[in-house]
Write a structure and sequence with these properties.
The protein is α+β, with helices and mostly antiparallel strands. The chain has 15 helices and 13 strands. Strands 1, 2, 3, 4, 5, 6, 7, 8, 9, 10, 11, 12 and 13 form a 13-stranded mixed β-sheet that branches. α1 crosses α13, α2 packs antiparallel against α14 and α13 runs antiparallel to α14. The two termini are about 30 Å apart.
């Protein structure tokens, strides 16, 4: 076998231009498919990262009326009937679930009433009434000031914590700690500014991406002690739950389990708890991306078919050129299978070299496309191995007919061939 590989490399080197032109179809096919697959893989990873963010593994279980977030209806319709606040026992049941690392209860208003600081107004904030566990669960760190302490809840203190976006927009570089803001007619003293760990901004390449990924982003967040929430809105408002899963893949399962626990206590068939299944959203978008790009892969595969036909053609020419050599080898005792193996090896080596060059060209092409279009790319090492292996298989398949022809030559006729 090693001798056959050596002879094949010598033959390829002796006819460099012819060999390169023969490999060109394989190189183009492998390069095209690899660049498409790399772009698909990169796009899928970006979709997942855009939806899940920095990977803090927090899934939110919220109230929905069919497919609509019920928080938008609370202001108009009031508190939904049959849904009670989460008690201590139910909260403990949530914490005891497998794959749950931490959990926090909160209430919220999306796109709430404006915040005021002096004569400055800030609209579009999300206002949340949180418990003591919220900041650790959702991985917030203190940038300035402090978070809530037990006395803030016990004494119903009118205090607020801002995230860094809200602090910057409302105070424009001024230190907010100790300042008084107004929300919903209530004066609140700012006691801290927090930032989410590993804060992640989705990659936006188009207007469609903006509407897809930014729909859940607001101008910032304001956190209040949940103890003062009833004085701002209404008593016995149902809470939602933020749960941190042990890992990203467990988020869907954890979200479903928490929603099931909450819905067991609910007596409202119209409004139910449901988890944001960002992994399912990511999978649906990835499937859509894959379905579109599978067509491109099939089109690129035509180049491999053309390349295989080119290999068959050149191997038939090679058999014709080396007929006397084949006859001489048979005359001195070479078996049919030895002749067959020699030509199959030559075809496989030829296409394998084309596969290696195609992989290199595909990686370069994927990087070029990524830079020109700002599309992400991610090279798959298993696919590189499969690409080279597949190119070898193409050589074996399309080199089989010429190899059989060479193996079946009559030694007497072959020696008399001019």
């Amino acid at each position: 076998m090693l001798e056959n590989i050596r002879l094949s490399l010598q033959g390829i080197w002796a006819h460099k231009m012819r060999s390169f032109l023969t490999m060109l179809g394989i190189i183009i096919g492998i390069a095209s498919i690899l660049s498409i697959v790399s772009t698909i893989k990169g796009t899928n990873e970006q979709i997942k990262q855009n939806l899940i963010g920095a990977g803090n593994n927090v899934v939110r279980v919220q109230l929905y009326r069919t497919d609509y977030d019920y928080v938008y209806d609370i202001g108009n319709e009031g508190i939904p009937q049959g849904i009670t606040p989460v008690d201590d026992d139910l909260y403990q049941d949530i914490l005891d679930l497998p794959q749950v690392e931490d959990a926090a209860l909160y209430t919220r208003r999306q796109y709430a009433n404006p915040l005021y600081y002096g004569n400055k107004e800030l609209s579009g904030c999300e206002v949340l009434g949180v418990d003591n566990a919220y900041f650790s669960t959702c991985r917030y760190t203190v940038d300035r000031g402090r978070t809530f302490v037990p006395a803030d809840f016990q004494e119903f203190r009118p205090v607020a914590i801002l995230d860094s976006d809200t602090a910057q927009l409302l105070f424009q570089g001024e230190d907010p700690i100790g300042k008084t803001i107004e929300y919903n007619g209530t004066a609140l003293v700012v006691i801290g500014v927090v930032e989410e760990q590993n804060q992640f901004e989705p990659v936006i390449n188009s207007l469609d991406d903006y509407y897809l990924y930014m729909s859940n982003f607001t101008a910032g967040k304001v956190f209040l002690p949940n103890a003062i929430w009833p004085s701002l809105f209404a008593y016995d408002e149902p809470q939602e739950v933020a749960v941190r899963a042990a890992n990203t893949e467990a988020m869907s399962q954890v979200g479903t389990q928490v929603a099931d626990l909450l819905n067991q206590q609910s007596q409202n068939e119209t409004i139910q708890y449901r988890a944001e299944d960002v992994l399912q959203q990511a999978r649906e978008l990835q499937d859509l991306s894959n379905a579109t790009n599978q067509q491109l892969i099939w089109i690129a595969s035509i180049s491999l078919l053309v390349g295989g036909i080119g290999v068959m053609n050149i191997m038939l020419v090679s058999v014709t050129e080396r007929t006397r050599e084949i006859g001489l080898k048979k005359a001195i005792g070479a078996k049919k299978w030895q002749i067959l193996l020699q030509f199959l090896t030559e075809a496989a080596v030829l296409t394998s070299l084309g596969g290696v060059l195609g992989v290199a060209a595909g990686i370069g092409l994927a990087q070029l496309v990524s830079r020109l279009t700002q599309a992400p790319m991610a090279v798959s090492l298993p696919f590189i191995f499969l690409a080279v292996l597949f190119s070898m298989v193409i050589g074996v398949v399309f080199g089989l007919l010429p190899s059989i022809k060479a193996a079946n030559l009559n030694p007497i006729d072959a020696l008399r061939h001019e």
